[in-house]
């Protein structure tokens, strides 16, 4: 009986669990979080002032995909659930918001409901859809463990991707442009990129606070306990499956919200949101930023988009260099940017 | 009835192609406990090398051998250069490192062979139909793939169950350290198993190439299908890979053939076509859902070793 997640079966697993994975939120993480969010709060003003206003949309994508990566870090870094299928929820959010917007543009109905491009409707609805889908996919995938879980989440990802590809009404695999839609968030007209950035930034700040509170709350402690030693948590009387499922659904909901924000930002709906490589890229963001730090997801998104922006003029093959860089990080600096920034300091779990 | 037989043969052919990819993946996972996302890239390397050599020489058998050899050599390089550093790392880092390989490989084939999709044509001597039943001609090439698939599973079964190397492979699943203590060169064994798995992925890439357009990323879908096979069949089990592959191949082919008609009994034809196609594309994943509910460790899993 050697269950990889419940008992320290072999020395090769314990080393990592007590080293990397055990790092919880410390005051250094809080300080880094505040500093990085402060940087993000002035970054668009700075790029605008320095005459590179086009970078505001890049920053918006950093904030949106950073939110998704942060919620992936929540299940992975704190819950110990390695999901290679979070693009599923990115796509679900994008298709919920995108479909409603599409139907508001041509005045048709979706399952009898009139469409709308009001983000105060589409974003919360996408969040709910993400939570429900997270309950279903998480509920099935969490019946497995370890490497099966990785494969199952990836498989569901591919299934959803093909379903979106089959939706001919939204352009099938080509997708559909929604450029005529408004970017309305309640009474705010966010068609201006700068205004839209600050709306997204506000959402990011809210969920950064929420997730940081959740991982410190009793609920979060149980979830972290399941990562460290599931058998012990079960022996203590916790329903580990339910806690892990709730954490997974919360993460799915936030990722889905990010997907809805992303489609409002790009005003283009296509299955590429749900492509499996997108799941891999979210994983890269988390690892580059630093696993188990929450803000690391946003830092990783920033690093990745910055690299893309810098190299796109030089080479068409920037993914080649992302791959090389990722190999270097995995082999050389497995603690990511956050871990390296915080040096050898051990945080208190 | 003829349609059913034809589609069943198509399903078997898809299943056996899938088996060539997933058998290597499951052997590698079973003995080395490593999750390798780049297995699909080895499929792609096989297809590209075969397209290149086939295009130059026009000789299918030469292309086939070159595709297998190319993938096996690529596998050797990857194992020696990267994978062996990952055996003792967590699955998360194996996923990341091999995903990095996928990104690199997908760009590398574009840098080497350009953006234009290539093609591999079926060999001339198989480019005809044979009557499997009176009045039912069937492409010889598809039958040949099924035959190759059967040969592969028989070869692997004999290798694992009847040879000394196979004994080491079986021992390596459960008693890695002990195997080394008995004087077996475990590193060499790992490299060997990895190269065999890579060669099989390359073989699958070559034989499937005539049905596909050979372009960057063609192996990714087969990689994910192999994961579904492994979730259904159970990790590390050849038997699981065999039954899983055939179940998925048949489920996919039958669903695509019959679901649109079946839906047509209840709703109007255009809705039926769309809904049928969507559900058919999801059919293999629905098989996986059923297995996850009934037997989360897979039908023939070694998880409770």
SSE string of chain A, helices as H and strands as E = HHHHEEHHEEEHHHHEHHHH
Helix content of chain B: over 70%
CATH topology of chain A: ABC transporter involved in vitamin B12 uptake, BtuC
The CATH class of chain A turns out to be Mainly Alpha
Characterize the overall form of chain A: globular
Tally the helices of chain A: 14
What is the total tally of β strands of chain A?
6
Portion in beta strands of chain A: under 5%
Mass-distribution shape of chain B? globular
Low-confidence stretches of chain A: 1-24, 344-349
Structural features, described:
The complex is a heterodimer of chains A (349) and B (305). Chain A has 349 residues and is mainly alpha-helical. Chain A has a single domain, classed as ABC transporter involved in vitamin B12 uptake, BtuC (Orthogonal Bundle). Chain A has helices at residues 11-18, 27-49, 55-78, 87-106, 119-141, 147-165, 193-216, 218-228, 230-235, 240-266, 276-289, 295-311, 318-332, 336-341; strands spanning 109-110, 113-114, 176-177, 184-185, 188-189, 268-269. In chain A, the strands form three sheets. Chain A has a two-stranded antiparallel ribbon with strand order 1-2. In chain A, helix 4 runs parallel beside helix 6. With 305 residues, chain B is mainly α. In chain B, helix 5 packs across helix 6. The mean pLDDT of chain B is 89.
Features:
heterodimer; A: mainly alpha; ABC transporter involved in vitamin B12 uptake, BtuC; two-stranded antiparallel sheet; 14 helices; disordered C terminus; B: 305 residues; mainly alpha; two-stranded antiparallel ribbon; globular
């Amino acid at each position: 009986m050697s269950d990889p997640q419940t008992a320290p079966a072999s020395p090769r697993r314990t080393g990592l669990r007590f080293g990397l994975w055990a790092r919880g939120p410390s005051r250094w993480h809080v300080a880094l979080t505040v500093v990085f969010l402060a940087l993000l709060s002035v970054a668009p003003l700075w790029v605008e002032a320095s005459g590179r206003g086009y970078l505001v949309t890049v920053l918006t994508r950093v904030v949106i995909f950073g939110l998704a990566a942060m919620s992936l870090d929540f299940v992975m870094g704190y819950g110990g659930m390695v999901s290679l299928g979070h693009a599923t929820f990115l796509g679900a959010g994008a298709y919920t918001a995108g479909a409603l917007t599409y139907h508001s543009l041509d005045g048709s109905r979706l399952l009898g409901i009139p469409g709308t491009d009001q983000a105060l409707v589409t974003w919360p609805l996408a969040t709910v859809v993400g939570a429900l889908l997270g309950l279903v996919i998480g509920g099935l995938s969490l019946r497995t463990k370890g490497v099966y879980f990785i494969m199952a989440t990836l498989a569901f990802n591919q299934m959803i991707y093909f379903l979106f590809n089959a939706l001919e009404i939204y352009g099938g695999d080509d997708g559909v442009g929604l450029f005529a839609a408004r970017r309305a968030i309640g009474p705010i007209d966010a068609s201006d990129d700068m205004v839209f950035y600050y709306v997204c930034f506000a959402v990011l700040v809210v969920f950064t606070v929420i997730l940081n509170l959740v991982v410190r709350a009793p609920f979060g402690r149980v979830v972290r306990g399941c990562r460290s030693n599931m058998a012990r948590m079960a022996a203590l009387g916790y329903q580990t499956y339910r806690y892990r499922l709730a954490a997974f659904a919360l993460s799915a909901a936030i990722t889905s919200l990010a997907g809805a924000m992303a489609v409002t930002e790009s005003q283009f709906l296509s299955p590429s949101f749900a492509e499996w490589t997108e799941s891999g890229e979210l994983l890269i963001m988390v690892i580059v930023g630093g696993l188990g730090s929450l803000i690391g997801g946003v830092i990783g998104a920033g690093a990745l988009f910055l690299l893309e922006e810098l190299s796109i003029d030089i080479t068409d093959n920037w993914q080649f260099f992302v791959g090389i860089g990722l190999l270097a990080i995995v082999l050389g600096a497995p603690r990511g940017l956050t871990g390296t920034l915080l040096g050898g300091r051990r945080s208190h779990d | 009835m003829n349609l059913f037989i034809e589609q069943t043969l198509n399903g078997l052919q898809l299943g056996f192609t899938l088996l060539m990819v997933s058998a290597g993946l499951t052997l590698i996972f079973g003995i080395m406990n490593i999750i390798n996302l780049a297995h699909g890239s080895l499929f792609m390397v096989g297809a590209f090398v075969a397209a290149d050599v086939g295009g130059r020489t026009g000789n299918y058998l030469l292309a086939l051998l070159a595709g297998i050899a190319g993938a096996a050599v690529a596998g050797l390089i990857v194992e020696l250069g990267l994978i062996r550093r990952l055996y003792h790392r967590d699955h998360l880092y194996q996923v990341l490192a091999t995903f990095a390989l996928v990104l690199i490989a997908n760009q590398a084939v574009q840098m080497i062979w350009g953006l234009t999709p290539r093609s591999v044509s079926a060999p001339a001597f198989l480019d005809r139909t044979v009557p499997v039943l009176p009045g039912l001609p069937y492409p010889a090439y598809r039958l040949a793939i099924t035959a190759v698939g059967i040969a592969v599973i028989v070869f692997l079964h004999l290798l694992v169950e009847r040879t000394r190397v196979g004994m080491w492979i079986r021992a390596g699943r459960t008693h890695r350290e002990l195997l080394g203590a008995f004087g077996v060169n475990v590193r060499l064994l790992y490299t060997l198993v990895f190269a065999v798995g890579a060669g099989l992925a390359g073989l699958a890439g070559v034989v499937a190439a005539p049905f596909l357009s050979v372009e960057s990323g063609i192996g990714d879908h087969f990689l994910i299908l192999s994961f579904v096979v492994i979730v259904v069949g159970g990790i590390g089990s050849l038997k699981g890979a065999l039954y899983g592959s055939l179940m998925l191949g048949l489920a996919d082919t039958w669903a695509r053939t019959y679901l649109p008609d079946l839906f047509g009994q209840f709703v109007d034809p255009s809705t039926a076509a769309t809904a049928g196609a969507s559900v058919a594309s999801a059919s293999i994943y629905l098989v996986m859902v059923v297995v996850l509910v009934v037997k989360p460790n897979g039908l023939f899993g070694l998880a409770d070793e």
